[in-house]
Amino acid sequence: MDGIKLDFISFEAIENATSMEKISMIIERVKKGSVVVVEGNLTPLERTELIETTMREIDIENFVGIDIQTLEKDTKSLFGFKKKKQVVITIVGPANVMHNVKKQSNILSIVAKLDENLDDD
């Protein structure tokens, strides 16, 4: 692969999909080397199933696993108090591509590794 392929999946594309359909859609793309950006969140059960499915499909030469990251925002209650965090996007990519991840407040930075010869600074 000469670059990084990003697949953006809108909420509308997956809102009526079953959990297994969502997981299959994500894993299929990640196994081909894409970093998948999903609008919204996977449920805790879907995240668990995604990880379990990935673990069953790991192949050291072709598919080493995934990395999952989320970007969140604070939602406010009726009176303006901080209520809870809401996931805005979920990012899933091949573990060997998502090289360095830094998360601060409302910023998520990912350094992607393009080839095996990239230095590990």
Give descriptors for this structure.
Translation Initiation Factor IF3, 121 residues, two-stranded antiparallel ribbon, four-stranded mixed beta sheet, alpha+beta, disordered C terminus
Overview of the structural elements:
- 26% of the residues lie in helices and 38% in strands.
- The protein has 121 residues and is α+β, with helices and mostly antiparallel strands.
- The chain has one domain: Translation Initiation Factor IF3, CATH 3.30.110.
- The chain has a four-stranded mixed β-sheet with strand order 1-2-4-3. Strands 5-6 form a two-stranded antiparallel ribbon.
Short characterization:
By secondary structure, this protein is of the alpha+beta class. 26% of the residues lie in helices and 38% in strands.
Shape: globular
Q: Biggest sheet, strands in spatial order? A: 1-2-4-3
Q: Which range does the strand content fall in?
A: 35-45%
Named at the architecture level, the CATH assignment is 2-Layer Sandwich
**H and E order:** EHHEHEEEE
Helix content: 25-40%
CATH class: Alpha Beta
DSSP summary: helix tally: 3
- List unreliable stretches of 5+ residues: 117-121
- Give the oligomeric state of the chains in this entry, treating copies of one chain as homo and distinct chains as hetero: single chain
Integer count of domains: 1
The secondary structure category is alpha+beta
The overall pLDDT, averaged over residues, is 82
**Distance N terminus to C terminus?**
22 Å
| Largest sheet: number of strands, sense, barrel closure | 4 strands, mixed
**SS elements, strand count:** 6
The CATH topology corresponds to Translation Initiation Factor IF3
CA-atom Rg in angstroms? 16 Å
